[in-house]
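Suppose you are handed a protein chain with no further information: no name, no annotation, nothing but its sequence. What can you learn? This example shows the usual starting point.
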Amino acid sequence: MPYELDYIETLIARDIDNSLSPEEREALLAWLKEDAGNREYYDALKSTWAITGNAQAGFMPNTEKNWQAFKQHITPVPARSIFYTYRHALRIAASVILIAGAATAYFLFLRTPQVTVTTLAHQKKTITLPDGSKAYLNQHSKLTYAANFKGSERAVHLEGEAFFEVTQHTARPFVVYAYHTQTQVLGTSFDVKSYNASRVEVAVVTGKVAFSRRNNQQERLLLESGNRGVLSDARPLRQMPIEDPNFMAWKENRLSFQDTRLGDVIHTLENYFDVRITLPDTGMARLRYNGTFDPEQLGNVESVLEVICPTMNLRWTKSANGAYTLHKQLQL
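A reasonable first move is to predict its three-dimensional structure. Written in structure tokens, the prediction is:
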């Protein structure tokens, strides 16, 4: 996940001072693992601190002799109170200048430029990543990655949903970070859904992935083709088969319902079209529907409802706020 530089520098300073809390140490380690440039910046700051910290405490400016002569004409004061303060101020100033210089060099020369791609409602994007891998971004999503994938891993950070087709590179694993989870692959295609931190899902189409918490990679799922992993606040990591034929409908632009409960059909339409559809009669949700919709039939939700409703003796209405309601058709 992205971190503010001020926060990272605070963690590094506390690390040098040996005053990091366990949570802070975990955050610092996670940041160091994200990119080789982060480790270089960390080492540069520690080196800067070592240089300034090892300055000779007994150093005196060349003007001390003149200063001592001048002291004879004023009220004597302890020499340490003036020169120690002066030297201390110089060391602080030098440290600040060097750290600021290191930070500037880090961003100009070491830090890899970050690319961020976002999508709005009803918007999808296809992204070619630096290694040639493809990312298909669903609506309401954000993907962040380094412009050249430097470092030991090809890391991307996701909020929302994306389908990945990963180019194989055995020496540099491809890793998707989504909130508190990570998904690591070598070469495969899979979907990651992470619209909020309370629930993250990974569904594998081809190949194999390792799905785990970021702070506990020992407890992980090895997911193969046809399976999905789910991590939610209420339950531990769990694996199950992919049973929804429409889990990739947003990318394929195709919907298929085979003896599907109407309640599940409505839920799929709500996710696909980003709309709200209600059933005032709870018994309607148990009705069964069969039908397939190709891309040319999925222009809008109303065209789909015009197909579904007559076959089930239903009609639809639309409210002023854009929500839809299905009603039983009155019998004449």
